[in-house]
Amino acid sequence: MEGMTFIVKTITKLLIGAIFLFAIYITFYGHLTPGGGFAGGIMLACGFILLTLAFGKKMSLGKLSDFWASLIDNLGAITFWSIGMLGYLSGYFFMNFIEKSNPFGLFSSGTILISNIAICLKVGSSIFAVFLALTIFGRFISDLIASEDED
Question: Is the sign of the CA dihedral 55, 65, 138, 150 positive or negative?
């Protein structure tokens, strides 16, 4: 049986939706409250890491494979770079080219909301990909050490 105990799996099933929802909330309202793209991305990555630890690698890779994590990582980086370059075309690098709306509203910050979303995608997928790489690399090293001990 892959993963952890029934209790850990049940608690993970109950909490994972709230973790993802709170990560999205922190990302979208990061320009109004403490948080933002980085904090939201870390929460998303922690949700996927929790799924991996509770249910095993097969289940979490079924939700977000290493290919899709890499693709989302690159999409977040390109989006953030594009926001900076579109601002540059308006006059300055990262210049706010979207008209601001009512203070304390979701769209009151111009390009900051889009930047937060791009950073959330970049950080979340990068941290999850690093976790996957370290677990695969760690498994490879432990197998290598075990095979040397048998010789």
Answer: positive
